[in-house]
Structures are given as structure tokens and as C-alpha cells.
Amino acid sequence: MIWPPSNRNPETTGPWLLRNTPYSELEFGALAPNAYQRAVISLTRRLPENWLGRRLAILLRKLVLWFLRRPLDMDVFGRNMRLFPFNNVCERRVLFTPQFFDRRERDLLASRLKPGFVFIDVGANVGAYSLFVSGVLDGKARIVAVEPQPRVFDRLTANIRFNPGCSIKAIDCAVADQDGKVSLFLDADNQGEASVKYMNWSGGEGASVSVKAKTLLGIAKDEKLERIDAIKLDVEGAEDLILVAFLRDAPEKLWPSLIVLENAPDHWQTDCVALLESKGYKLLARTRMNLVFERG
Fold first, then answer.
1. Is residue 8 pLDDT above 50, yes or no?
2. What's the number of domains the chain is made of?
3. Are residues 165 and 249 in the same domain?
4. pTM, entire model
5. Contact assessment for residue 148 and residue 194, using Cβ atoms and an 8 Å cutoff
6. 181-190 burial code (b ≥16 CB/10 A, e <16)
7. Same domain, 286 and 180
8. Which stretch of 16-25, 47-56, 75-84, 211-220 has the lowest confidence by average pLDDT?
9. Same domain assignment for residues 149 and 259
10. In terms of pLDDT, which residue wins out, 18 or 145?
11. Which residue range forms the structural domain that includes residue 91?
12. Considering 95, 122, 154, which residue would you say is the last residue of a domain?
């Protein structure tokens, strides 16, 4: 039986006997779904990627989320993840329907993966892309996951810790066009959305926090990267700030071969598509959320 709704903070207390232990201190598996939750999640994960499959997934996951007051420990992309599906859209997607999560983008990325692959995940959220790459290559990759939102960063580092040997380094900063401090604007309803640009979130205006910022080139230099095989940029409309500075200042040998880019032209001051095409990149795919470019 799911513990009934209450006013307890689901991020600092657990249900019943676990309620006095912070979730971050619990070993993976301590928050495994019960039989009912597991059955529903198993069903949503088998649904086809079409209109009917998506609608059924939304309806079925409500049967779990209605009473859920704690995160769930589950396997996603062959990796262990502790997921908070009630306040982060990304976590909700990868918990219930990982087969729908950026499938085309992941397929293109997977087709380029090989041992020693260097991947930078900018706007890593709780690590879905980073853990996917790590899972495909069984840890034989160099992965840098960058996430500025403090609470989400804690979830990211926990998910990395739950997967020993996964070769992911987490960095807690924003990526921008210059080093320093920036205001990070947060969505009141979706903790996975944060931007260094002011956004009129659909859920209403959220808070802002001051965080450190680095350029993408600065991160590459700090990590002593000699090349970047692929990068994912999902920074809620600030992709142009990052790309303009990087392609202007970085040596060409550091330009990534593959770029997965959130498609947010309404928030760009510079046309990222035109910019990338002028640098020799070719558009490989345009999906519901992202653009995928390749150079070489």
C-alpha cells in the first residue's frame, strides 16, 4: 500500500520507516517500486512510440504518481537511477517511457560510439544522456556532465555514485559565453528546466539562484581534452551563447563531430542552425525537441 499523501517534503524524508533518513543517504535499491508500481512501469515501458502509446502512458503513469511521495530506484538504459518523477519532466519520461526518450538522438549517438569516446553533456539534468553513453560503452568513455541547478546536480551525482566505474565527471556550473557568476532562472514546476536567460515558464515565474559559469572552451581546457567526439546542449534557450563563444575561440581540433542541440530558435539571438552550417556542420535529424548536426 502506498503511504497516503501528506505534507512531508518528498526530498528530505522517506515513507514510513524510512522517513527519518534523507534519500541521498540510502543505498540504491532501498526505494525500489512495489509490485503494483513495477507492474505499471513495466507496461508503460512496453508501449509503442505512437500517439496511442503516448496517451496510454500518460494515463497509466497517473495511476502511480497520484499517491507517490518518494523517488523510485529503477534501471534505465542499463544503469541505476533514482528518479523523482513528480517534479522533473525528464525524470518522469525516463522512469515510465525510456523508449520514447530522445530515441532518434540516442540512436544517432550510439551509432558513433566507440571505446575512448569523449562526450560533454551540457545541461545534464539527472544524467540520462551521460548514463546512456556510459552504459553502451560499459564505462569505456570520457564523459563530462555539466549541471548548474544545485538540487538537480545532487540527483546527478547520486546517479553517478549508483553506477561504480561509469567514468562520468560531474561539474556544477552553468555554461555561458564568459566565466564568472550568472543568475540561473528556475521553473517553479519543472526542476529540470533552468536557464541563464530569463524565461516565462509555463508553470509561472520561479526563483533564481546565483551560480558560477564557465565557457565550454574553459571546461575543455580544465579537463585537458584534446578532442570532443560529441556534445549535447540542452540549456533552455542559451545554446547560442555557448556555441558562438566556443566556435569563435576554440581551435578547430576541439570542435565536436556530433552535436545534439535543443531546438529553441525563439530564444536565440543568433541563428544556431545557420552558424553551424557555416562551420561545415550538416543537419542529420530534426526531432520534436532537438536538432542533430555532424561535421566531417
1. no
2. 2
3. yes
4. 0.90
5. yes
6. ebebbbbeeb
7. yes
8. 16-25
9. yes
10. 145
11. 16-95
12. 95
DSSP-assigned states of every residue in 226-265: S--SEEEE-STT-HHHHHHHHHHHS-GGGS-SEEEEE--G
Residue 236 corresponds to which amino acid? E
| Identity at 186, one-letter amino acid code | L
Same domain, 114 and 200: yes
- What is the Cα–Cα distance from 145 to 123, expressed in whole angstroms? 8
C-alpha cell recorded at residue 217: 572552451
Burial classification of residue 56, based on how many CB atoms lie within 10 Å of its CB (0-12 exposed, 13-18 middle, 19 or more buried): middle
Residues 233 and 123 in one domain: yes
Looking at residue 109, its pLDDT comes to 98
For residue 113, give the CATH number of its domain. Answer: 3.40.50.150
Q: How far is CA 288 from CA 63, 139, 198, in A?
A: 26, 29, 23
Amino acid at 91: E
142 CB-near residues (< 8 Å, 6+ apart): 116, 117, 118, 119, 167, 225
**180-187, strands of its sheet edge to edge:** 174-175, 205-214, 180-187, 194-195
